[in-house]
Amino acid sequence: MNEKLLARSGGKCELCQKETEVVVYRVLPDTHADNEVVVCESLIGQIEGTEPLQPEAWRFLPDAMWSEIPAVQVIAWRMLNRLKGESWASDALDILYLDDETLEWAKALGEQAEAGEAIVHKDANGNILQNGDSVVLTKTLDVKGSSLSAKLGTVVRNIRLVEDNPEQIEGRVEGQLIVILTKYLRKQG
User: Fold this and answer.
1) pTM strictly above 0.85
2) Which CATH class is domain 135-187?
């Protein structure tokens, strides 16, 4: 971390102001001179969209959005937009003011930022599912276009996540590959 960033941040996260493990994050596109921000290491995955968004972890944004540092304002604007389904984030976004240049920078990634948001598959209990997991059916399901009925309690091994739909997985039941809704299954320990 360069001396300028260290002095500006005081060694704290410039978003939440916590004194934890921090890293330097480059706010894209890096066409601006001061595009680096000191951020908690734990927030990076959510900012980049590689980890599921946890709205409660971002409750500090209504304070951070008033930072004098344009790069912090850009991150706050982008994260508030991703969280606008939360009433507190929507309210903050309504009163946030960015000058034209900063707003243009914040919008510069457009759909790319949203496309980078991770699709997360969760079972009926909220557990995150991965390719290759084993799951148990929590309801007897009739398979469309087949006489097959997948019974309650059936274990489906080595599942495959449906890439573009977080509510569906694929798995084999009685040798037949079927699509199963995640709300009807539970991850097996």
Assistant:
1) no
2) mainly beta
